[in-house]
Amino acid sequence: MDESILIKKLKEQDPSALEEIIRKYTRLVSSIIGSIACGNLTEQDVEELTEDTFIALWYNTEKAEENKLKAYICQIAKNKTKNKLRDLGRHKVVSIESVTAEDDFAVSDETEAKNASLCLQEAINEIGEPDREIILRRYYYYQSSSAIGKIMGINPQTVRTKIARAKDKLRKILIERGFTL
Amino acid sequence: MKTQLFDIFETAPEGIDENTLEPAYNIDPEEVIKGVMKKISVKQTPAKKKKAKKKIVLTLIAAAVAAGILGTVSVGAMGGFNEAFGDMFAGEKSGNLYSGGNVSIQNNENYKINFLGVTGDRNNAFAPFTIKNADGSAFTADPEKDYILPLNMDYDPDSDSILISSTYTNGTYDNVSIKVPFFTKLTSGRYSEVDYVNGGGEISYTFMDDSTIRCIPSYTSGIMLEEMNLKGEEMKVEIKELYVYHDVEEICTCTNVYGDENFDETPQKEADAKIREARKHLKEGQVIVGKYDHIAAADDSHISITAKYYLADAEKIDLNMTGTWKLNYRDENSVQLSIKSKTISHECWEKRGTVSYQVNSITASPFTAVIDIQADKDSERIDKESGVDNEFFFEVANSCPVITLKNGEKVQCEYQSDLNNGDTYEETNGNYKIELRYTAIQDGIDTKRLFINPDEIQSVEIEGVTIPVR
Predict the structure, then answer these.
(1) Are both A76 and A106 inside the same structural domain?
(2) Are both A36 and A13 inside the same structural domain?
């Protein structure tokens, strides 16, 4: 089904649209949840969070827009997972890996955030490969350096070095364009 | 509060093969569909819910001064009645304390809401409250055309929440509830927020100095308690959720007279038992709410509080609003505790080994212990993964202090530290001052003892060390 039709049906609360979205994005959503969780969540937790993500989408369809559906679903999944981890964090140790990306690319000014985010997307495209892919895998999909290294055939230590350098580049670009990180 | 830029990407990145992302446990989409369909079939859609048979006049849950009532009520010991209630009830002899207040709700696509101020509220804690729209523009209510509604105040002992009620008579929703923090005791300079709705979302509070405390509801208990220091008189409030209640069913009614030397807790205990029983049978989307009426004696000697408790379906509406809340509060009421020097080792975050520190002193106040420590500098770890140097992480979640009160009662506490946030510790020349926030808990999720008066504290036991009050 075309995404625009899918979203239209979703907004009309057509369960078949939700089913199709679940089939299409379950792998992505559970991957993101798993990456953020870094082994701190059980299979049942991950499945519940995956369900919660789609339930949240069902009840908040007004924000679902064409070409932005995947990003919106990813965002819901991330938020749900972080909430869950913070909750668990009160009771047991949660790996720091799951929160390391928190403040690397964050701004305090809410009104500035959207523009800064758009600028960051542009800047990422300017830094070239493989840095672009590494940064996206690390910070958008929350993959660990080891996982990135394995997939891209790069030594994990090299991945970390590239991440550090790419971050510097991105930070400079954003600062040059008037944003404060 | 900081916004993570990667989390607000409007479009997903291109060119990444998502098949190379590690699947988590190979979650079966068909199983997810079954689970989702089961859950959404239980909940009614918003459109259907509007047709629900019963509705109650509902609730703008707001906060601030009101919470002074809560903290004291929850403690149960009303000896400090005049101190706790005096300022709040002076000039208000009967009826609804804040009945002269106004709330403005303009129900458009942004759910613009403005607290115009509460007349008759001496502390003026609700005014001014302005809401910024999602696009950053500010909303200014116009009393001539916006809906100005009478404000009522309810107390929900089950959730220890103050509900500020208003009837919204125009627009899509005629009963609305907005969750915002309440303050358990203004004299302590702290507040507490309870998320009593199962699986609720997230509420964030941001101080003007940009330090941030996030309030995250517990998914396991359905109840959440969070607290923080109030560092300024004005703070931003971000409201993420709005609730509309339907299908209301009364559970019980209970009347207590506070301020009397012969205070009888029996009615409240009986009501608590019924509420606990009702809680066991809560269905998806259901909540327990309370409506609260009080009558204060003319001489302020006592107050009669009648609470009605209801079971209701809560329709959640996501909001994303921020506002500025101006507060009045008094100086922090804290007590100094002393501790003998002792070296304690904690497990660090994963892959970080251990860090040792020596406790020099502890300052305890409601909900919070501030611990001055001397860290073993050699224990500091560089976060090689993120490339951030000199981070100082460690985990104290398993270190639950026990507070012994002067009357012999022991209260188990739960740390709520989040020490990977920079605002929870300060470092000066190797000396660290760490704020360990804790919550008094009973029976795992019961929050009857939300507030502990520092003057009542006999000692605190942390890590096996008993710290007497100096």
Answers:
(1) no
(2) yes
- Residue A181, domain member (yes or no): no
Answer whether A163 touches B (CB < 8 Å): yes
Position B387 scores a pLDDT of 38
Task: Show the low-confidence residues of chain A (pLDDT under 50).
Answer: 90-102
Pick the last residue of a domain from A38, A72, A97: A97
In a domain, A67, yes or no: yes
Contacts 24+ apart (CB under 8 A), B294-300: B294/B97, B294/B155, B295/B94, B295/B95, B296/B85, B296/B89, B296/B92, B296/B93, B296/B94, B297/B93, B297/B259, B298/B93, B300/B82, B300/B85, B300/B86, B300/B89, B300/B90, B300/B259
Q: Which of A176-180, B16-20, B220-224 has the lowest mean pLDDT?
A: B220-224
Residues with Cβ < 8 Å from B277, sequence gap 6 or more?
Answer: none
Domain end marker among A97, A117, A144: A97
Sequence spans of domains, chain B: 10-47, 48-326, 335-468
Q: Extract the tokens encoding B283.
A: 């269905």
pLDDT digits (tens, 9 = 90+) for B261-313: 566 667 777 877 787 777 778 777 676 655 545 455 555 555 566 666 767 66
Assess whether A109 and A73 both reside in one domain. Answer: no
- Report the alpha-carbon distance of residue B434 to residue B427 in Å, rounded: 9
Average pLDDT score over chain B: 43
Say whether residue A106 is in contact with chain B using an 8 A CB cutoff. yes
| In contact, B338 and B361? CB cutoff 8 Å | yes
Residue A144 lies in a domain: yes
A14 and A93 together in one domain: yes
Q: Is the pLDDT of residue B78 over 70?
A: no
Contacts of B445 in chain A (CB under 8 A): none
Q: Please judge whether B219 and A31 are an interchain contact, meaning their C-beta atoms are less than 8 angstroms apart.
A: no
Number of domains present in the structure of chain A:
2
Instruction: Convert the pLDDT of each residue in B446-459 to its tens digit.
Output: 332 334 455 566 76
Is residue A118 located within the same domain as residue A43? Answer: no
Q: What pLDDT shows up at residue A50?
A: 92
Contacts with B316 from chain A: Cβ below 8 Å? 59
Residue with tokens 């629900």: B52
Which tens digits make up the pLDDT trace of B230-250? 333 343 334 444 444 556 677
A149: domain CATH number? 1.10.10.10
Select from A12, A21, A30, A158 the residue whose CB has the most chain B CBs within 10 Å, as the one to mutate to test that interface.
A30
Domain with A47 in it: 3-97
ipTM of the complex: 0.82
Q: Give residue A21's pLDDT.
A: 92
